[in-house]
Design a protein that fits this description.
alpha/beta, 7-stranded parallel sheet, 10 helices, globular
Length: about 325
């Protein structure tokens, strides 16, 4: 059996879909299943059992002999949430409980960290474990992810294999429920469909022109492929970046969305909201050498390829991965 936390969410549900495609049917789906807006993400998928998030630890204690692998994807991911207690509970302490059971029962583990740990990128975007304790995230979400990374590295007892993946800007199908936290591509698609126009955040940094803020956008299908590679690989434990390795501008992103919709670009700019303005990353780009060095050699989608696939095969029809 393979446990996937955050199973009804954006990345977790896509991961289950690909696991099913590769023949893995004994999936234990873990989530807060009271959130019905995510229910469609699991329709049509083969799942052995649904386990409520709050019941997972007692479930593992009873069934650990049959658990082959854990993907801990679930987390509170709202970067505009500033209640540290929520992040302590769901992102730090919950992850520690999973880790401790993986140690006790010798279950291999892949868990989701985040590029939010890098803050403004003062130390660059290298997944060098020696500098993780020096990183300065910009919000409680990033703090929680970095706190757990630091804790994991400090543990004397570790799972027989583990990997923490610093997800960069992920986009793709199954994020329909994410509202404000959905990718810019999904927001762009909806705006363009409704108005034939798109509004982007204005730059409040003199080093970047409007629309030329840069992020490392990674298509969710590539991220899932890496997760499954690590499930099979099961060596070279550690913390890894997971982006495309190529920073692109938001203008590039939106222009490609217009193109995929067969529309002429019409982009204007609005002020970045005050509540996130001083915590806004103007540049991120994953150094992907570490993952490549352990044998992952599959190419990532270019931004053009990923946006075209997402828009034409999912957003335009409301299809799910």
């Amino acid at each position: 059996m393979i446990i996937v936390t955050g199973a009804a969410g954006f990345i977790g549900s896509g991961l289950i879909s690909q696991l099913n495609t590769e023949g893995f049917k004994s999936i234990i789906a873990v989530d807060d299943f009271s959130k019905i807006e995510k229910a469609a993400n699991l329709e049509g998928k083969t799942i052995k059992e649904k386990v409520e998030r709050s019941e997972l630890f007692s479930w593992i204690d009873q069934n650990y002999r049959d658990v082959e692998f854990i993907f801990h994807i679930g987390a509170r991911t709202n970067t505009t949430e500033f209640d540290k207690q929520i992040f302590d509970e769901l992102n730090v302490n919950y992850s520690k409980e999973i880790w401790n059971r993986c140690v006790e029962y010798q279950i291999p583990l892949v868990y989701a960290s985040s590029a939010a740990t890098y803050g403004l990128g003062e130390l660059g975007y290298d997944d060098n474990e020696a500098t993780i304790s020096q990183l300065k995230p910009l919000n409680p979400y990033g703090d929680s992810k970095n706190e757990f990374d630091i804790w994991a590295l400090a543990q004397e007892k570790k799972p027989l294999f583990w990997a923490g993946l610093k997800f960069f800007n992920v986009y793709g199908p199954n994020e329909y429920h994410k509202a404000r936290m959905a990718s810019v591509i999904m927001h762009a698609y909806n705006q363009i469909k409704a108005t034939d126009k798109m509004k982007l955040f204005r730059s409040h940094n003199p080093d970047y022109r409007d629309g030329e803020q840069m992020r490392d956008f990674i298509y969710v299908k590539d991220l899932i492929d890496v997760c499954i590679f690590l499930m099979h690989h099961r060596k070279n434990s550690g913390i890894y970046n997971l982006g495309s390795g190529q920073a692109r501008t938001f203008k590039d992103l939106v222009e490609n969305t217009f193109k995929a919709m067969d529309k002429t670009p019409d982009i204007s700019f609005i002020d970045t909201p005050i509540d996130i303005r001083d915590k806004y990353q103007y540049f991120t780009e994953a150094n992907m050498n570490k993952l490549r060095s352990i044998g992952y050699n599959k190419p990532f989608h270019t931004l053009e390829e990923g946006v075209a696939d997402y828009v034409k095969n999912y957003l335009s029809s409301g299809a799910y991965l």
